[in-house]
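Tokens in:
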């Protein structure tokens, strides 16, 4: 069994795609996943499962569509991958506010052409780094008005992407590390 983290995109933001986390935990249990736990109301789940990350992603997306009646992009990471995100922050030297330090989790390595185009742009004073399947973004002024995050969202780096602030990533890591 592998400890997985499921990051759901766009859950409980606004009036659409509403989902109670208790219902998500129950659904994960019905899929045969063990120890399902959730964090916050924005679609962060931790559970133990067999199978590959791709198999888990597909199963979770299909089950959400069936149970809740809408499609949701799901990005899967292992607990070890979440730990690596925290340990290898390329912007840690600049970021001093966890709510403005973001990680965009991609479903795959970024498309080279899209990444190159994004890297050719200047977003100062915002900073970013692409490392593996994550885009780290430091938005010192305002995350919601960030030109950088808007550009990352439009860049089509991967099929699926979802973002979390550093504070949430830390809490996810703690939840994933906790014994049941």
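Residues out:
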């Amino acid at each position: 069994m592998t400890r997985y983290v499921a990051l759901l995109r766009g859950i409980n933001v606004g009036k659409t795609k509403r989902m109670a986390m208790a219902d998500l935990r129950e659904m994960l249990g019905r899929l045969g996943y063990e120890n399902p736990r959730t964090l916050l109301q924005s679609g962060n789940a931790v559970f133990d499962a067999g199978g590959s990350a791709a198999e888990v992603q597909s199963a979770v997306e299909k089950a959400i569509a069936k149970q809740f009646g809408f499609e949701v992009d799901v990005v899967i990471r292992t607990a070890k991958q979440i730990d690596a995100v925290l340990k290898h922050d390329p912007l840690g030297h600049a970021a001093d506010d966890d709510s403005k330090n973001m990680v965009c989790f991609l479903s795959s390595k970024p498309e080279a052409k899209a990444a190159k185009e994004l890297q050719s742009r200047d977003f100062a004073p915002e900073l970013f780094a692409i490392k593996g399947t994550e885009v780290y973004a430091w938005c010192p002024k305002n995350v919601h008005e960030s030109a950088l995050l808007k550009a990352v969202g439009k860049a089509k780096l991967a099929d699926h992407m979802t973002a979390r602030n550093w504070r949430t990533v830390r809490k996810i890591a703690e939840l994933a590390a906790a014994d049941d």
